[in-house]
C-alpha cells in the first residue's frame, strides 16, 4: 500500500514560546502534503485531527488504515472531508463513485469501509486534500460543489484582505459530527487572510495554502495573541493551528487556502477576536 503516516504530539503555549524556527516548523508545518501515487497522512493530537493528501497518477490509491488508529478500517470511528485541488478525480466509497472536479468537496461518514482515489487524466492528476476527525454518529456521504456552498464576501482592497469564503463542509450545507472545511480565495491585490485574527478555545484548525504563484510565499502567523510567531510557507503546504493559537497569514501575492476544523462544536462563529493593535 502506498502510504506515509506521521503522528505529532500536542504542544502547549509555554513550549511554543521557547521554540526556534526549526522547532516550530517541525511541530506545526506539514511540508509535503502530496507525493505521486501516495496517500500521506499526519495525525495531530490536537483533537486527533488528521491532515493528508492523496495524489493518484498511475494507479488507484486506497485510503490506508494506520496501526496508530487501532481500528478495523480508517473510518470505523472517523469521518473525513476532502477538497480536490488538482485535475478531475474519482472517489469510490463502498462501491459508490463520486466524480470530484477542481475545488469540489466530498464528505464521507463514519462506517465507510473502503475508499479509493483515482485520477481521470494521469497528465492532470487529482489532488485530494483530506481532513478527518473522530465521529460519534453516522451521517450520509455527500458531494459538495461551489454552487452548493455557503458563500461570504469579506474585507476590502483598502485593507488588502478582500476575499471570498466558500463554506463547503459546514453544518448549514452537510451534516457532520466534527469536521468542517471551506476554501478562502483572495482577490488580486489582497494578501491578508483571517484578519483581524482570532482564536477558538473549543476547536483546533489546519490551513492548507495553494495557488501560490511561482517564486512567491505566504507568511503564516500563529501563537497566542500576545506572543505571536510566524512560519514561512510554500505552495501546497499545510500548517497545524492549536486551539490557543491565532491562524492568519499574509502572502507576497494573492492565493487560496483551505481551512479545516474539529472540536466540541459546529458553530462557525464561535471565535474570540483579537484586535489588530493588540497583537504582539
Structure notes:
- InterPro entries: KduI (IPR007045), KduI/IolB_isomerase (IPR021120), KduI_N (IPR027449), RmlC-like_jellyroll (IPR014710), RmlC_Cupin_sf (IPR011051).
- Catalyzes the isomerization of 5-dehydro-4-deoxy-D-glucuronate to 3-deoxy-D-glycero-2,5-hexodiulosonate.
- The protein has helices at residues 13-17, 21-28, and strands spanning 3-8, 29-30, 38-44, 49-55, 61-62, 78-84, 89-93, 96-100, 105-108, 115-119, 128-134, 142-144, 150-154, 163-169, 180-186, 192-193, 198-199, 203-210, 218-224, 227-233, 237-241, 248-251, 256-263, 272-273.
- By secondary structure, it is mostly beta strands.
- The strands form 5 sheets. The chain has a 7-stranded mixed beta sheet with strand order 1-3-4-11-6-9-12, with no helix packed on it. The protein has a 7-stranded antiparallel beta sheet with strand order 2-21-18-23-15-14-13. A 4-stranded antiparallel beta sheet has the order 5-10-7-8, with no helix packed on it.
- The chain starts with a strand and ends in a 7-residue tail after the last strand.
Amino acid at each position: 500500500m502506498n502510504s506515509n503516516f506521521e503522528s505529532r504530539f500536542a504542544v502547549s503555549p509555554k513550549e511554543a514560546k521557547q521554540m526556534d524556527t526549526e522547532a516550530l516548523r517541525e511541530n506545526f508545518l506539514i511540508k509535503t502534503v502530496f507525493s505521486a501515487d501516495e496517500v500521506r497522512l499526519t495525525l495531530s493530537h490536537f483533537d486527533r485531527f488528521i491532515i493528508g493528501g492523496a495524489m493518484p497518477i498511475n494507479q488507484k490509491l486506497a485510503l490506508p488504515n494506520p496501526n496508530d488508529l487501532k481500528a478495523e478500517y480508517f473510518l470505523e470511528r472517523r469521518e473525513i472531508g476532502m477538497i480536490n485541488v488538482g485535475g478531475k478525480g474519482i472517489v469510490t466509497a463502498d462501491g459508490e463513485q463520486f466524480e470530484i472536479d477542481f475545488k469540489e468537496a466530498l464528505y464521507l461518514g463514519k462506517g465507510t469501509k473502503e475508499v479509493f482515489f483515482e485520477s481521470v487524466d494521469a497528465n492532470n492528476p487529482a489532488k485530494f486534500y483530506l481532513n478527518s476527525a473522530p465521529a460519534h454518529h453516522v451521517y450520509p456521504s455527500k458531494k459538495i460543489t461551489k454552487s452548493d456552498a455557503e458563500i461570504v464576501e469579506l474585507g476590502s482592497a483598502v485593507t488588502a484582505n478582500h476575499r471570498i469564503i466558500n463554506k463547503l463542509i459546514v453544518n448549514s450545507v452537510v451534516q457532520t459530527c466534527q469536521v468542517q472545511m471551506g476554501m478562502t480565495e483572495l482577490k488580486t491585490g489582497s494578501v491578508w487572510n483571517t484578519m483581524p485574527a482570532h482564536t477558538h478555545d473549543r476547536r483546533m484548525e489546519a490551513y492548507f495554502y495553494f495557488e501560490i504563484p511561482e517564486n512567491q510565499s505566504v507568511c503564516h502567523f500563529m501563537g497566542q495573541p500576545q506572543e505571536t510567531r510566524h512560519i514561512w510557507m510554500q505552495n501546497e503546504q499545510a500548517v497545524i493551528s492549536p486551539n490557543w493559537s491565532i491562524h492568519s497569514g499574509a502572502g507576497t501575492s494573492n492565493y487560496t487556502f483551505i481551512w479545516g476544523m474539529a472540536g466540541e462544536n459546529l458553530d462557525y462563529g464561535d471565535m474570540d477576536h483579537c484586535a489588530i493593535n493588540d497583537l504582539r
